[in-house]
Structure formats: structure tokens, C-alpha cells
Amino acid sequence: MVEMADRSLDRFNSSASAEVRDAAIAEFIETGVLNHETAQVDEVETAMVEAAFALHAEREVFKPLGLTSAQYSTYIDEADMPALRRALVAGDWGTLHRHAQAVAAHIAQHGDSNADLY
Q1: Residue 92 region, left (φ>0) first, then alpha (ψ -120 to 50), else beta?
Q2: pLDDT tens for residues 79-105?
Q3: Distance (Å, rounded) from C-alpha 42 to C-alpha 105?
Q4: Which residue of 53, 59, 67, 70 has the lowest C-beta tally within 10 Å?
Q5: Distance between CA atoms of 94 and 1, rounded to whole angstroms?
Q6: The pTM is what?
């Protein structure tokens, strides 16, 4: 699955024009949805690209900290999502790792409840 998702991401990055790719990525950063019409690829391909982003984050950020993506997502302020998606698209694992470390520290200190986080 990871290899298929990576190949889809590579195809998207190499086959789309810079304008199409930039528009699709900008929309993803703002909305969290990779729109197949904006990206000018079929729905399956966009689903695979989204899966590649998720699998990379899982592998590079969450799993090493003992988190799951579902668990992490419950600790995200919606206002932070565009910046975190921008870091994900850029492969800025440092930013994502620091944020996930804060989530892991919160869980270690308070248990797996985000009631007092915001």
C-alpha cells in the first residue's frame, strides 16, 4: 500500500503542470481535500495521493512517538490545520514532529483526554 501511494504521489508531482499542482495543493492545504477535478486526475489517483500523505505522516511522525493519526487528530485545533497540512505537503517533518511531541507529552501527563487542551 505504501509503495502504491508513493507511486501515485510521484506521478502526480511529475505529470501535473506546476499551475495545476500548485492549485490542487493550495486547495488541499486550505480544505484538507485533494479535489480530483482541481488536480485533473481521476478520483482513485487523488485518493492514493491523500493516502500517501497520511502514510508518510504515520510513518515519519506519529508511530515513532507512539501515536496514531486518529489519536493525534483529536488534539488538533482546526485553526492549525492549514499550517500542519502545508508542513505535510512540504515534508516538513520537524514541524509536524514538534507538534506531535506536544500531543504525546500532553497524553503522558494528562492521559488520553484533550478536554483541557484548548
Answers
A1: beta
A2: 999 999 999 888 888 999 999 999 999
A3: 40
A4: 70
A5: 25
A6: 0.78
